[in-house]
């Protein structure tokens, strides 16, 4: 009886030790996103490159490249982490799903950290604040002076964007037309398939520079989410802190403001070519 009891105790102890060993090994193998990024030597950033001056395509030294101040910010984040930057282009709407699935490490794409998105992913500090404006045809400018003037109208907005939510929740009886690509939405406006387009003011101003038949109305919407931020997976505190350090450094030095100026100039040059 005693020997049997001793054997049972020894067996139970061994099982416990083995279990702890497996748990310990598992915890060592699990790395947070910041560690994983540094280990692989690159950070994969998702963005929708149809949103000048945030991110857009331009011919640089004879090559088609994705540029803009979101790209400049991404480059600085990568530099501070000591890794290379890889930009993964996709439409705006699937970005959060791609982040959660591990296809990208972060989102830098003029994204507003609204409450719905905060339930799915975490965000950095705000790196840029912008108002949302209403783009219309120049000939119709006098028709759109207040939000009430948008009532019942065909309103364009980017699929999955904050502007979609504004159009659907703020504009009464709006017939909201959604497309994934902002450039296509601008074309819809120019061809009278929509009567107004809600977008961020810098994007609207870029569109007007090469489309003089368009104009920015007096209607504006404040950004309740506070501006644009970098999106990361839930619970990645180390990575969020790392990104916030870069954002703060660029704000303190004035470089972030310069990125915005440079991106606007580059977008204007690109559209005039």
TrEMBL record:
Compartments reported by the entry: Cell envelope
Entries under SMART domains matching the protein: PBPb
Gene3D superfamilies, sorted: Periplasmic binding protein-like II (3.40.190.10)
Keyword annotations: Signal
Pfam families: SBP_bac_3
The Solute-binding protein family 3/N-terminal domain, residue ranges: 42-268
Entry superkingdom: Bacteria
GO cellular component: cell envelope
Cited PROSITE patterns: PROKAR_LIPOPROTEIN, SBP_BACTERIAL_3
SUPFAM superfamilies: Periplasmic binding protein-like II
Location (main, coarse): other
UniProt keyword Ribonucleoprotein present: no
Similarity comment text for this entry: Belongs to the bacterial solute-binding protein 3 family.
Protein name: Amino acid ABC transporter
Species of the source: Clostridium bornimense
């Amino acid at each position: 009886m005693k020997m049997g009891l001793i054997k049972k105790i020894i067996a139970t102890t061994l099982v416990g030790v083995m279990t702890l060993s497996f748990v310990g090994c598992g915890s060592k193998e699990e790395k947070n996103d910041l560690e994983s990024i540094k280990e692989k030597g690159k950070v994969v950033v998702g963005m929708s490159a149809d949103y000048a001056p945030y991110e857009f395509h331009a011919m640089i030294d004879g090559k088609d490249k994705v540029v803009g101040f979101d790209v400049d910010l991404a480059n600085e984040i990568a530099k501070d982490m000591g890794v290379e930057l890889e930009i993964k282009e996709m439409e705006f709407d699937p970005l959060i799903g791609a982040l959660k699935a591990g296809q990208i490490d972060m989102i830098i794409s003029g994204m507003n950290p609204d409450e719905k998105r905060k339930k799915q992913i975490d965000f950095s500090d705000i790196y840029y604040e912008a108002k949302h404006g209403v783009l219309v045809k120049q000939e119709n400018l006098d028709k759109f002076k207040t939000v009430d003037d948008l009532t019942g109208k065909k309103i364009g907005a980017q699929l999955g964007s904050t502007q979609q939510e504004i159009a659907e929740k703020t504009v009464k009886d709006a017939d909201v037309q959604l497309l994934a690509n902002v450039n296509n939405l601008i074309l819809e406006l120019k061809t009278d398939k929509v009567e107004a387009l809600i977008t961020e003011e810098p994007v609207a101003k870029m569109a007007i520079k090469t489309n003089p038949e368009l104009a920015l109305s007096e209607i504006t919407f404040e950004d309740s989410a506070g501006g644009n931020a970098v999106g990361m997976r839930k619970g990645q505190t180390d990575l969020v802190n790392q990104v916030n350090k870069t954002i703060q450094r660029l704000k303190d030095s004035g470089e972030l403001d310069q990125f915005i100026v440079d991106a606007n100039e580059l977008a204007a040059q690109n559209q005039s070519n």
